[in-house]
Amino acid sequence: MYTEGFCTGALLPLGELGTPRQEVHVPLAHQAALSGLLLAAAAVRKALGLNGLGTQITRINVMRALGSDLTQPAAKDPRGICICHDADFRDVYKSKYASALEG
């Protein structure tokens, strides 16, 4: 299940010594259940108007102990390949949605 950036699986290495490395994507049931809960929680937050400004990213590795600071603001791609870096796109967006951005 891949929805809204929720991934539910792991890449497990396969193979034998001396053979090319191979990996297989294996679904993890507990990770699938957690992603469903996170997706539902995100829908509730949006419906209640509790979403903050900007995109937030939550990373939980179900194969390790739970850490702190799981949710962080999303950083822009340092390679500059996002359309949000394109000056023409930004100018058109601002001219089209200027009134929506102000209010």
The separation of the N and C termini measures 36 Å
How many H/I helical runs? 2
The low-pLDDT segments are: 1-6
Q: Percent of residues in beta strands?
A: 15-25%
The chain-level mean pLDDT equals 76
Determine the structural class based on helices, strands and strand pairing. Answer: alpha+beta
Anisotropy-based shape? flat
Radius of gyration from CA coordinates: 19 Å
Query: What's the SSE pattern?
Result: EEHEEH
Strand order, main sheet: write it out: 1-2
The tally of strands reads 4
Percent range of helical residues: 25-40%
Described by strand count, sense and barrel closure, the largest sheet is: 2 strands, antiparallel
Quick overview:
This protein is an alpha+beta fold. The protein has helices spanning 29-47, 87-102, and strands spanning 9-14, 22-27, 56-58, 71-73. It starts with 8 loop residues before the first strand and ends with a helix.
Which key terms come to mind for this protein?
two-stranded antiparallel ribbon; alpha+beta; disordered N terminus; 2 helices; 34% helix
